[in-house]
Amino acid sequence: MTDLGPAGATAKNMKFPLNAWYAAAWDHEVGSTQILSRTIAGKPLALYRTDSGRPVALADACWHRLAPLSMGKRIGAEEIQCPYHGLQYNAAGRCTRMPAQKTINPSAMVASYPIEERHRYLWVWPGDPTLADPSTIPDMFQMDSPEWAGDGLTIDVRANYQLVVDNLMDLTHEEFVHSSSIGQDELSESEFITTHDENTVTVTRWMHNIDAPPFWLKNMRDKFPGFTGKVDRWQIIEFQAPGTIRIDVGVAKAGTGAPEGDRSQGVNGFVMNTISPVDERTAIYFWAFMRNYRLDSQLITTQLRDGVHGVFGEDEEMLTAQQEAIEANPDHEFYNLNIDAGGMWARRIVARMIEQERSAISNIDALTATAGPRR
């Protein structure tokens, strides 16, 4: 068995770190005239844009009576109004107007979360805002590069977000869950290499001189009409903590140099995935399929999006059933196979992030207790 380190890496840990960037919405979901309600990492958010287009993420609960601000409306250049009693808040979360009084209570404010727009998503940092570094937003450059084309959708997953990560880090399940589209026997028969560092895990698998499964045969024929013959197939899975996974996938005519870097006789795609926990039982799964061929074909973009959506629907059914089984068997611990190495290293990284946050909070509590009460 592969050495996966401390037991915390293999435990059924359903928790999530807060000091991290999570995708909260597609860029097109949030405008300047409406307010979007979304919960990320246990934090209910009210998402909107100012008139200048800058995204804003406020806590979705009015200071006064906790009415959801997402049920309110946009006011002026950058403010929103509570739907219950009309309190208004600016983009920093500070109350600027109260009904029937001129004096505004100085404590009247709601949390404003760091938010950045990048790679067609709005990314929110639900933890300590002083630690929010935009340079650490997961790299998903294919999403808005002119050299890649594609589209994606969102799945509301009725399962813990780490189960989705597990699913994507081990693609041998394709042989069994997706046998009619992308699965084939060679997936579980082929060797793979797992590497990792402090924040990423990469699983690399090559399958040489095999028949292309239906999904990839269609794509080869989209680029090379009438293609027949064997292919070399690759899957290179890259996890970026805590919930983003890019999967470099494709096939090329066998023996034409794809393993050595020449993919010109093949088709290449990136399955882009970023999964945000809602709570410990549910998640929001943003995905897209990007390709670097036939960039001008909207037909291929739509066909690929719909085809991948069908594949992911099979995953969704399995993940829901798995979550239900976990809840029905609370004393059962996960067991691991060699194929779980990538997912377990990803879990180890997440477990370390959570432990670091706990330690930081404990240190602050200890310093506060040592300092004693103010006088």
From TrEMBL:
GO terms for biological process: methylation. The keyword Transferase applies. Residues 21-124 form the Rieske domain. GO terms for molecular function: 2 iron, 2 sulfur cluster binding; metal ion binding; methyltransferase activity; monooxygenase activity; oxidoreductase activity, acting on paired donors, with incorporation or reduction of molecular oxygen. Keywords: 2Fe-2S, Iron, Iron-sulfur, Metal-binding, Methyltransferase, Oxidoreductase, Transferase. This is Putative vanillate O-demethylase oxygenase subunit A.
